[in-house]
Amino acid sequence: MDQKKIGNFLRELRKEKNMTQEQVADRLGVSGRTISRWETGAYMPDISLIVDIAEMYDVDVRDIIDGERKDINMNSEVKEVAVKMADYSAMQTESMKKWVKTMSVSLLIVSVFLVIMEIVSECMMINLMGFNDFRVNAFRIISGLFGPASIMAYITMALSVMGIVFATGKHRQFARSQKAGSLVKVGVVIAILLAIIALAEVVLKTGMLYAYGPGM
Question: Which of 37, 134, 156, 202 lies at a CB distance of 3.0 to 4.6 Å from 43, suitable for a disulfide?
Fold first, then answer.
């Protein structure tokens, strides 16, 4: 398979349709930079997009794979196989998106809970220490918003929102990108680890306040 040849063929097909790279990108839900990389042969289109590209340019899937038009049309069996492969790839993507969405929503809820618990723990500390100065108390509460657990919770929130955007397809280019999918999965795993660490810290801190508060 000659990537350069395929790239040149894709560029020729686009020009035949009098379409810009941006127009093709919008139709396929990818970025203009992605189209440029396909046409230079730097990257190959994802298998789930091959059928869409073939239909858009009115050519056979086999033509795209070969990088040139054939004298005979692709038979129905070859097209059926290509469609099934694209459907299988899409099914895998949807399955992954459901997992990302479930985990992201759960992590978003947990991260909000962590920030609230961090503030609650600071309020408990104020109550136990008997601080009466409003400015000091306000400072301690605000400091709770920037404690280690809170910062990890904020990062978890950001990663969760990114996962939700990807999984719900609100941003087409982002949702269709393979690299974005891989980054989101890594981000969700990192968010899970951060949430576990932050939760352990908040629970430990709150537990110590309950256990040793009266004697402080």
Answer: 37
